[in-house]
Design a protein that fits this description.
CATH topology of chain A: Rossmann fold
Oligomer: heterodimer
Number of domains of chain A: 1
CATH class of chain A: Alpha Beta
Structural class of chain A: alpha/beta
Number of helices of chain A: 5
Strand order of the largest sheet of chain B: 7-6-11-10-9-8
Number of helices of chain B: 16
Largest interface: A-B, 11 and 15 residues
Order of helices and strands of chain A: EHEHEHEHEH
Largest sheet of chain B: 6 strands, antiparallel
Number of domains of chain B: 4
Number of strands of chain A: 5
CATH architecture of chain A: 3-Layer(aba) Sandwich
Helix content of chain B: 40-55%
Strand order of the largest sheet of chain A: 2-1-3-4-5
Distance between the termini of chain B: 90 Å
Shape of chain B: rod-shaped
CATH superfamily of the largest domain in chain B: Histidine kinase-like ATPase, C-terminal domain
Chain lengths: 137, 501
């Protein structure tokens, strides 16, 4: 089963994302983290064996900036090419440009339930379909 | 050397001390003594005196009275009061009455010098009494003016030596005129560049070395104490009648306070903008939760009673409206903030096409028709132009008349350095008394049925004003409205590609 790591500190948003993941077909495993540092620690630790097919990352986390977390993720060799989507409520173009420059997608969080579920569902499908990061040649 | 002809007014026959003083000073005199007013008048009528020495008085005639008589008879010879009375008041009084000098009998050694100077001054005056007087007057007038102007003034001769400093220059530099006079100007005027960087050549020295345009410039003045103040100053040449540079003058004033205030305003604006940005962003998040979960509750209870459903619609509607307000607030704050990275140049034609795409849904839904003349390029950021056009068009569509599909005609006309645009609609119009208020914050002239934040036209006004333009409304209720506004034209037309080789 494909696996997605969610780094999101807002329980309301996490619940909506869970709803979107539950609707996925084929089903998708979801591993949530509430903040950047624990997520990074787990992803770096060879013992945990977390090899996500995609990562959803909130742009504004409790103790860290989402774009900063993205930069650190990119520095981890086995995550350098993993598809990442930045979840944001801001429409700041600067954030968007930065996310794009780091090879991440940019997903605005909607005020409407259907729009929210659809945009999360779509981005998850796209990321998982783009396949697991190819290792080797 | 001709002897000096002296008329001595003295009731005492003892002329010994005066004559002795003259002799000691090496002055040959021809002295005549008078004792009474009658003798005095006769002697003055005869004339031919080089100097008149007024002693302590004549019989029946005080020294002051004798001076008055000299004035009355228009005696040109100077009058020196030689008095035994040591009183400053009487001396001052005598000088006021026209005495050239005042010498005490106990200090007669001063008399020869006083006589020489008084005669010299009188001759100079006599040579060209009018010119001398005018010169004296205009000099005094100029000095008084220079001392009282609000700007600091330092003047030098052609070699850059200080000739004059007014009190404000003394206060600003911390140097005194009497110490600086005759010294090179950099003794009292220590200037650095605007940001404190050293100057290759200070303005006065530069001016004195070669002809330069006198431009007002900002400098940093290093005071005598080493403190620095920001000044703005101009160096200008002083020329004589033949146009030769005989000196230079530097006028300057302290702008430290102004610069500090400007910096404070700039910072306050920046903080305010940052504040509005972050609240409009941070408040969106809880609103989004309200909106999402009100909808989730509604979905969870599809069979809820109509009241509950209505309450939930109010919650969602309120959140949505507040979110729109926050977005508008942010847009409003950003208009006057730091300029967007794009140049201040946009094609109104392109901006309008963008707006038609953005508003395609509502245009389609209301069957709106938008017609326009060819539109010019203007010196405005394209994002601002799009926002301005979009707010005006959506405003016209919003206030359409029942049963009349909205029609909007857009035209432009060159007015000097600006383009005047007009957006005419066939909407519901606004009564004249409300016309000026439509550009105010949160003004909404419609019922709750029509969506809007009441900020659209306030944003339009802000955009137009940011570019120094004006926006106004002509409207007839039940017929329609015309919004006029002016935007800066591009000074030069873009080069024709055919001309570029």
């Amino acid at each position: 089963m494909a696996c997605v790591v969610i780094i999101e500190d807002n329980p309301g948003d996490l619940l909506m994302i869970r709803e979107a993941v539950n609707r996925m077909d084929p089903p998708l495993e979801m591993i949530p983290f509430e903040d950047g540092p624990p997520a990074l620690a787990a992803l770096c630790d060879p013992g945990t064996c977390i090899r996500p097919d995609a990562i959803l990352l909130d742009v504004r986390l409790r103790s860290s900036d989402g774009l900063e977390v993205l930069r650190k993720l990119r520095a981890i060799p086995h995550l350098a090419k993993t598809p990442v989507a930045i979840l944001t409520s801001s429409t700041a173009e600067a954030d968007e440009r930065q996310a794009l420059s780091l090879g991440a997608r940019f997903v605005p969080k909607s005020f409407r339930v259907d729009e929210f579920l659809d945009s999360i569902g779509n981005v998850l499908r796209q990321m998982v379909a783009s396949g697991p990061p190819t290792t080797g040649v | 050397m001709m002897p000096i002809r002296v008329l001595l007014l003295e009731n005492s026959a003892d002329t010994g001390p005066v004559a002795g003083a003259m002799e000691q000073g090496g002055i040959q005199t021809e002295m005549t003594r008078v004792e009474t007013e009658r003798e005095l008048r006769e002697a003055l009528e005869r004339g031919g005196w080089d100097v008149i020495l007024a002693g302590d008085g004549l019989h029946g005639c005080s020294g002051a009275e004798a001076l008055r008589i000299c004035r009355e008879l228009r005696v040109e010879a100077p009058v020196i009061v030689v008095s035994g009375v040591c009183g400053e008041e009487s001396a001052v009084e005598m000088m006021r009455q026209g005495a050239a000098d005042y010498v005490l009998k106990t200090n007669l050694v001063r008399l020869p010098a006083a006589i020489f100077r008084a005669i010299g001054d009188a001759r100079a005056r006599a040579e060209s009494p009018r010119a001398q007087g005018e010169l004296f007057n205009s000099r005094e007038w100029l000095y008084a003016t220079l001392r009282s102007v609000g700007e600091a003034v330092i003047a030098t001769d052609a070699h850059g030596s200080v000739g004059f400093m007014n009190p404000i220059a003394e206060k600003l530099t911390g140097h005194k005129e009497r110490e600086a006079a005759g010294r090179p100007v950099d003794f009292c005027l220590n200037l650095a560049g605007r940001e404190g960087e050293p100057l290759r050549e200070p303005p006065l020295q530069l001016l004195l070395s070669r002809p330069v345009a006198n431009v007002q410039q900002e400098f940093t003045l290093v005071r005598r104490t080493g403190e620095t103040v920001s000044v703005i100053g101009t160096a200008a040449p002083i020329r004589n009648g033949r146009g030769e540079m005989i000196g230079a003058v530097f006028t300057f004033r302290d702008i430290t306070g102004r610069k500090r205030a400007e910096e404070q305003i700039r910072q306050a604006n920046q903080e305010m903008h940052q504040f509005v940005r972050s609240i409009s962003h941070d408040l969106q998040e809880p609103l989004r939760m309200i909106s999402l979960y009100a909808e989730m509750i509604r979905r969870k209870f599809p069979d809820a009673d109509p009241d509950t459903q209505e309450y939930l619609r109010f919650v969602m509607g309120g959140a949505e409206r507040m979110s729109a307000l926050l977005t508008s607030l942010r847009a409003y704050a950003e208009i006057s903030s730091a300029a967007p990275p794009e140049p201040e140049e946009a094609d109104a034609e392109v901006a309008l096409q963008q707006v038609l795409v953005n508003l395609a849904a509502i245009i389609d839904e209301t069957s709106a028709v938008i017609v326009h003349d060819p539109l010019p390029r203007v010196a405005v950021h394209s994002a601002h132009l799009v926002q301005l056009f979009q707010n005006l068009i959506s405003n016209s569509i919003k206030y359409r008349r029942e049963g009349h599909p909205p029609t909007i005609a857009i035209a432009s006309a060159r007015k000097g350095s600006r383009w005047q645009f007009s957006f005419s609609d066939n909407g519901s119009g606004v009564a004249p008394e409300y016309a000026p208020r439509v550009f105010d914050f949160f003004q909404r002239f419609h019922g709750p049925g029509i969506p809007g934040t009441g900020m659209g036209l306030a944003i339009c006004k802000r955009i137009v004003q940011r570019y120094g333009g004006r926006i106004w409304l002509e409207s007839t209720p039940g017929v329609g409205s015309v919004f006029h506004f002016t935007l800066p034209a591009l000074e030069t037309a873009p080069p024709d590609p055919a001309d570029l080789d």
